[in-house]
Design a protein that fits this description.
The complex is a heterodimer of chains A (about 180) and B (about 130). Chain A has about 180 residues and is α+β, with helices and mostly antiparallel strands. Chain A has 6 helices and 5 strands. Chain B is built from 3 helices and no strands. The chains are: A alpha+beta (about 180), B mainly alpha (about 130). The interface between A and B is large, with 43 and 53 residues.
Chain lengths: ~180, ~130
């Protein structure tokens, strides 16, 4: 029941955000900011109840850890801070490699020791968008990631699986704080 | 005065975004194999799209500040598009890279390949006798 309520409220909020500007029956702040017509809101309630019935088991599985606002703020801080700096570095690195053509590639294995699906998805996407690396495959039993690395360092290859700090820096710490 | 400053920031954001998308295009032409091409294509198009969407969001905020009612719609819809790009772009890259490696494309000039010889995962079993 709680899963249904959470899913319905979230889809209703998203529906309202996407259909703002449809009429002037309900107005928040002033007419230029957010406004809706009654018909749009009734349709929105019906549609979000349907979505809540269908998607409640997919959207919420087992626990409500991610309903905590502290985790949302942590996520936003992560996106603005280390993630964006990593992306900027990555793009300067790509520009350098496009111009000079120097590559020294390889596929290495790392074990970031994250347990949840959400955490490992966030880590894989972060690794793909940050410098020098592209996530290729995952070992689903142990949550190990296989990473395509465009400039393999010699000293990192002494230990297998390769240490996380060469590939993704502090990201596993941040993601453990957000998603686990 | 404020309007002109915001306009200049929008131009700068557009120039940065277009520059990185151009780098992505040149990278696609210059790099030797599928992984390096994905590497160039994914990172630079995502970063460039962030700046292009950011310029549209700034323009929408300026329109809202000046009293036009379309500003909020522009901001919210562009932010939705940006979130969708940020989630789907690396996921698609991951899918293409995995498919390429499983169908036998090896990285050009690889120093090390830990994925070589790893069996296909257990959670996706291949049906025996399905092709008879």
């Amino acid at each position: 029941m709680l899963a249904f309520v959470v899913t319905t409220i979230l889809s209703f909020i998203i529906y309202l955000l996407l259909t703002t500007g449809s009429g002037t029956d309900i107005v928040i702040f002033n007419e230029n900011f957010l406004r809706w017509s009654f018909g749009e809101i009734i349709i929105g309630i019906i549609l979000s109840v349907i979505v809540g019935i269908i998607a409640r088991k997919i959207f919420v599985n087992k626990n409500y850890r991610m309903a905590n606002p502290i985790r949302w703020f942590g996520f936003i801080a992560y996106i603005i801070g280390p993630f964006f700096i990593g992306m900027a570095k990555a793009n300067i690195d790509v520009a350098y490699r496009v111009i000079t053509g120097k590559i020294n590639p390889g596929i290495v294995k790392i074990s970031p020791d994250l347990k949840t699906d959400l955490g490992i998805t966030m880590l894989a996407n972060s690794i793909t968008l940050t410098p020098g690396t592209l996530s290729v495959d995952i070992d689903e039993d142990k949550n190990d990631l296989y990473i395509y690395w465009i400039n393999v360092k010699k000293e990192a290859l002494k230990k297998k699986p390769v240490d996380c700090k060469y590939i993704c820096g502090d990201f596993p710490k941040w993601i453990r704080r957000i998603a686990e | 005065m404020l309007s002109e400053i915001v306009d200049n920031i929008v131009y700068i954001f557009l120039i940065i975004g277009v520059f990185f998308n151009l780098i992505a295009g040149i990278g696609l032409l210059r790099f030797p194999d599928v992984y390096t091409r994905l590497y160039a294509g994914i990172k630079c198009t995502t970063f460039g799209s962030i700046f292009i969407c950011g310029s549209v969001i700034l323009l929408g905020l300026k329109m809202w500040y000046q009293g036009s009612s379309d500003g909020t719609v522009l901001v919210i819809h562009t932010a939705g598009a940006l979130i969708a790009i940020l989630i789907t772009n690396p996921t698609g890259a991951h899918a293409i890279a995995r498919a390429a490696h499983r169908s036998g494309v090896k990285p050009v000039g690889a120093v090390v390949d830990d994925l070589e010889g790893k069996p296909a995962r257990k959670s996706a079993p291949i049906k025996k006798g399905a092709d008879k």
